[in-house]
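Render this sequence as a predicted structure.
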Amino acid sequence: MTLFLPSFILEDMEDKLSDLFSWAPDFWNFQLIQVDGQSITFGTVLTGIILFILGYFICKSISRQFAKKILSRFDIDQALQHTLQTFVFYILLVILTLFVLRLLHVPVTIFTVLGGALAIGVGFGSQNIVNNFISGLIIMIERPVKVGDIIEVGDVSGTVINIGARSTQIKTLDNTHYVIPNSTFLEQNVLNWTLSDDLVRTFVSVGVAYGSDARKVEELLKQAAQEEEKVLNYPEPVVVFSDFGDNALVFKLFFWTKIKDIMSLRALESALRFRINHLFNEAEIVIAFPQRDVHLDTPSPIKVEVLK
């Protein structure tokens, strides 16, 4: 079925459609700003945004392939690979930005205008974003914290899984993820268990009853450490007679081990306590507990009755 319309109706429809979209070229060529005699139009900005978004994903893909195809061939640890991949990504972003500006005939001096706008933005609260970004660059250059490190910062402890431009992600023992601003690592004390290597020293403390054979306690503590395969023989474990406590003779067993994660370290300490408890029971050495002796000073004997 074919529909035929009179020519005057078709001409009228064409005129109306032409009037309806007549604003599009004017809107596309609408001048937003002028820099060095070069007009920056709405169309130029929109085209630049689209090209930058597409280029962003291309740069991300190239940096990943660079790490996967090239860096993986060298004897480089995972943390350094992640750092180099991030730097390659940032370099590609800079090249992309200059390319888009050149393609759209936008003068580089536009950064002077944008720099003034950025300065105003910093004054109104974006200083935190800039601070975290610069802190992220410092972290990746100095590498006090790397991907895969086991760290403690504030009340958070876990493994670093990603260092981004603004924040760092930490995975805890409970499989929860914390996103911590990069500036935190430069402003607070950070405990990095694996900064230089994976060797750590820790200790297990135990208190025995007064009257116990101190040398025998020392011998059993060393035996417990020697029987645990995850405790290193060198540096060798050391037993320290720590203190005469209120209710116990306090000993500390210091030992070295290789840390994989904080939970494995806690599990090793727990295994040593189980073994120490077993050895002490066999040797009839009493692990002390809090107790008090009460002495009554009375003018006359206290009458005690035993009731059935």
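Summary. The chain has three domains: 31-142, 150-192, 199-282. Confidence is low (pLDDT under 50) at residues 1-5.
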